[in-house]
Amino acid sequence: MKVAILGAGKLGLKVTEALLDGDYDITLVDTNEEKLSQISQQLDVMTVVGDGKTVELLKEIDVKSMDFLFSCTTSDDTNILAASFAKVLGCKKVACRIREPEHMNQLDFIREHYNIDVIINPDLLITSEIYRYLIEKYTLSNGIYTSNRIALIEFEAHKLPQVIGKNMIEFRNVMPNAIVVGISRNGKMIIPHGNDIIEKNDLLYVMSTKEEIFDLAKKVHTKRHKADVRRVMIIGGGKTGYYLARRLSEYGTSVKLIEKDRKRCHYLSDKLKNVMVLNGDGGDMSLLEEEDFDKMDAFITATGYDEENLLLALTAKQHGIEDVISKISHEIYTELISKLDIDMVLNPLDISASALLRVIRENKRVISSVLLQGQAELMEVYASESMSIIGMSLSELKLPPYIIIAAIHRGTKTIIPDGNTRIQPSDRVVLVCLLSHIGYVEKLFKQSAILNLIK
Fold first, then answer.
1. Same domain, yes or no: 416 and 306
2. Is residue 296 in some structural domain?
3. Residue numbers of the domain that contains 425
């Protein structure tokens, strides 16, 4: 599959790296020659220097032969034009990133008028995840996600006391036909393996047959409910803060938005109705106390600085705020996050890359997928005869800690696998992978080079 990425920024590189191990022929375009030179030395991709919105450049990369093009330069207008031109020139499917709020009320018009298949907005995506967590408390449908003959349930560990203190092997002794595919702990999603131990305050994601899960649901009393989020404080009036404040205020929540930049505050005050916009430093404790921040139902840090977001989130948690959410853009803080008592930490790059990969993979291998707390993805993948994993036991695959194979549909049979289970052609494999490593799925289900040669 031939893919073109226009823009070698953070998102462009994230998507490129995720696709590297799959069956993709990737062309990366950017105006920065020095950056592309460095990338070409590190990654096995074709790099082209030029302006992606010019017909000359698009013809140079032979866009008419491309299966997919994603434009994610720093300019919305460039992205729209580049994707539109690429579609006119014969690219099968095109997508672009659009971030400016001014475009948000005309996305349908842009799609139709410019013939763009998919529009990605990182700030809207992360806003949706935060909103879902706050307003719906992140429950799946009735706390249960079903696919074919299996189901996934989420519940707090203390509702099933007999599993607290147990590792994953011991958990299987308690529930032989079930598997823990995810643990949410202190704002971080963990893909658990053998010696990982369940703690009292963990949020567990458990998968088994529908019958087992529905029986378990009766014990843990998992119910869908609307949250009583009446007061929310948001630190940072950037695009994420803007979208989130607007959506929460429309829901009926009282929102206070603190932003340092006075000019930005005027813009926010003009655009946001029923939102109290305050000009000030979100790190100023006297300001926070004056605005009764410790009486908030939720506290979201969405500034452009990860360190500030984490520090403020930790401070809010220490003041007893029930729901504290932080936006983080760098993976270097992953280990630190696990040591902090923050309810939810989201990375817009991971969420955006995952959304785009689902589009690229459409009708290819992935049958269905669903996000878990905005940090991991559960997906069902069709295993074809030509894949390199066919015939290998799970223990032989030596899966890294950020992915777990949770179930296998084989004909009319559903298998909750162990290390000896082998994947066979036509299996429907259900797995969970952290979004930060979602590209590994491409490597895992890569076509076998030997079989391709035989064919």
1. no
2. yes
3. 353-454
Would you say residue 159 lies in a domain?
A: no
**Structure tokens belonging to residue 133:** 């967590």
CA–CA gap between residue 348 and residue 361 (Å, rounded): 20
Both structure tokens of 214: 């529905």
* 342 plus 360 within the same structural domain: no
The pLDDT assigned to 137 comes to 60
Exposed / middle / buried, residue 89 (Cβ in 10 Å: 0-12, 13-18, 19+): middle
358 and 331 both lie in a single domain: no
Q: Does 361 share its domain with 447?
A: yes
Strand, helix or coil for residue 448: coil
Report whether 391 contacts 424 (CB < 8 A): yes
Residue 304 lies in a domain: yes
CA 420 to chain centroid, in Å, comes to: 30
Task: Tell me the CATH number at 24.
Answer: 3.40.50.720
Q: Residues 100, 13: one domain?
A: yes
> Model confidence over 213-223: pLDDT tens digits?
888 988 886 55
- Tell me: pLDDT of 354 over 70: yes
Q: How sure is the predictor about 292, in pLDDT bands with cuts at 50, 70 and 90?
A: very high
**Residues 118, 136: Cα–Cα separation, whole Å:** 26
Q: Which of 62, 94, 120 is the last residue of a domain?
A: 120
Could you give the number of structural domains in the chain?
Answer: 3
The per-residue pLDDT for range 155-196, each reduced to its tens digit, is 899 999 999 999 999 998 999 889 999 999 888 899 998 889
Q: Is the pLDDT of residue 301 over 90?
A: yes
β-sheet with 2-6: strand ranges across: 46-49, 25-30, 2-6, 68-71, 93-97, 118-120
Terminal-to-terminal C-alpha distance of the chain: 17
Give which of 444, 333, 414 is closest to 151, Cα–Cα: 414
C-alpha to C-alpha distance for 76 and 100, rounded to whole angstroms: 7
Q: Specify if 188 maps to a domain.
A: no
Q: What is the CATH number of the domain that holds 368?
A: 3.30.70.1450
What's the average model confidence in pLDDT over 105-109? 87
Percent of the chain with pLDDT over 70: 91
Give tens-digit pLDDT for 51-65.
Answer: 999 999 999 999 999
SS3 212: helix
Last residue within a domain, chosen from 120, 142, 176? 120
pLDDT tens for each residue of 342-351: 888 899 999 9
pTM for the whole thing?
0.83
291 and 362 fall within a common domain: no
Q: Does 381 lie in the same domain as 341?
A: no
Q: Mean pLDDT for the chain?
A: 88
* Helical ranges in 298-431 per DSSP H: 306-318, 334-338, 348-360, 394-397
3-state secondary structure of 439: coil
